[in-house]
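thought: fold this chain, then report.
action: predict
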Amino acid sequence: LAAVGRIAVVCNAFIIAFSSDFLPMMLYAIDNRERNAKRRNMLAGYVNFSLAVASPQMTDLEIPCRYWGYRDTEGSYNLFFWKLTTVRLLFVIIFEHVVLGLVKLVDIFIPDIPESVQLRIDIDDIIASEILADDDVKRKANTGTMTERLITVPTSNRNSLTVPIMEHPAAETSKEDKPHNG
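observation:
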């Protein structure tokens, strides 16, 4: 699903870059800012600039035929076309990185599982592990392999708490019971 989202972002970037007139208009305004600086309209002459003139050999008309494109009189792409193609590809890369970065930020700041639900899951895990531990202790106590002893645990308010602990007899071995190599 994430791959489909990334492909959709890239496709939208290409659609915006190659089908709208926004980038050609901005590039024209930047390229001609000195010439159009005295005018209020930065896009003065853009429509005439964006129309190429067909070669007289291609048409049988006496008047020049104009069509939308960035070509010279021989029909080859002009320098503006190559600049525009570069700007469009840069736009695709920048747009893709910005959108996917914003998606990642939203993904980081908005958790998939709400905090209250995650807390309840953690509590349920603790309860389940305690139930399993109690069952294990009871099973071992019934087989006679566990012994019970009381330990005293100091608390923060200078009192002590006596807690029953179930131990395995093997854990009660002392140094005297261990074999001595020597």
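thought: worth noting. The CA atoms of residues 51 and 68 lie 4 Å apart.
final: tokens above.
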